[in-house]
Amino acid sequence: MNDKVLVTYASRAGSTAGVAEAIGKTLTESGIQVDVLPMQEVEDLAPYRAVVAGSAIRGRKWLPEAMEFLHDHQGELRQKPFAAFMVCITLSMKNAEQYREGLKDWTKPVYDMVRPVCEGYFAGALDFSKIPFSLNTLAMRLVALAGAWKEGDHCDWNAIRTWTESLLPLLHL
Ligand SMILES: Cc1cc2nc3c(=O)[nH]c(=O)nc-3n(C[C@H](O)[C@H](O)[C@H](O)COP(=O)(O)O)c2cc1C
């Protein structure tokens, strides 16, 4: 088996891709060989000794392409150390900590397929210029207008680095 780790992601507007790149960079700095790939480009998990997979949240759910990836690869993922992360805007809110425990429900469909050794929950970014208009995005804009969350990049790069470093023993790296 290869010694590489796969960091794979589902992203619509790019912030989850950025979080995945940051995770990959921290692993690389720890001397680990890493591929960072969108889930649609992953065909085979055989070359990887461990997998870190994450999705943007939309409508309190992992993206459909992320669920499809986990569904298709669940058998192989159960045989490897696997960590999961999600990226959302709720964690950018002022009172975010009161929601953190509840956010685990959004990852429950993932546990039902394959149980991660560790889960990361991160604030992402909101940039309406990158999001096509729809009823769902209108709701997001209205909540932003009401002040519950703000447009902008809310990624906490230190938290992402700390989480990634905590993965090393859990993924047997
Ligand atoms: C249509 C839409 C629905 C969203 N639904 C949620 C949600 O239910 N909960 C949440 O915390 N964030 C939600 N978000 C915010 C995204 O999860 C956040 O902006 C994330 O960083 C997007 O990742 P991406 O840039 O990789 O697509 C939503 C964003 C959009 C555009």
Describe the protein's architecture and organization.
The chain is built from five helices and eight strands, in the order βαβββαβαββαβα. The protein is α/β, with parallel strands linked by helices. The chain has one domain (4-170): Rossmann fold (3-Layer(aba) Sandwich). Strands 1, 2, 3, 4, 5 and 6 form a six-stranded mixed β-sheet that branches. A two-stranded antiparallel sheet has the order 7-8. α1 links the parallel β1 and β2. It is globular, with a radius of gyration of 16 Å. Flavin mononucleotide (FMN) is lined by residues 11-16, 56-60, 87-90, 124-126, 131, 136-137, 140.
Please describe the topology of this protein.
Blueprint: E1 4-10, H1 15-29, E2 34-38, E3 48-58, E4 61-62, H2 64-77, E5 82-88, H3 97-113, E6 118-123, E7 125-126, H4 135-145, E8 152-153, H5 157-170
Parallel strand pairs: 1-2, 1-3, 3-5, 5-6
Antiparallel strand pairs: 3-4, 7-8
Helix pairs in contact: 1-5
Bound molecules: flavin mononucleotide.
Heterogens: flavin mononucleotide
Give the low-pLDDT segments.
none
CATH class: Alpha Beta
What Rg is obtained from the alpha carbons, in whole angstroms?
16 Å
In the CATH hierarchy, the architecture is 3-Layer(aba) Sandwich
Coarse morphology? globular
Number of domains: 1
Output mean pLDDT.
Answer: 94
Proportion in helices: 40-55%
Q: Could you state the order of secondary-structure elements as H and E? A: EHEEEHEHEEHEH
Distance between the termini: 14 Å
Please name the CATH topology: Rossmann fold
- The helix/strand class is alpha/beta
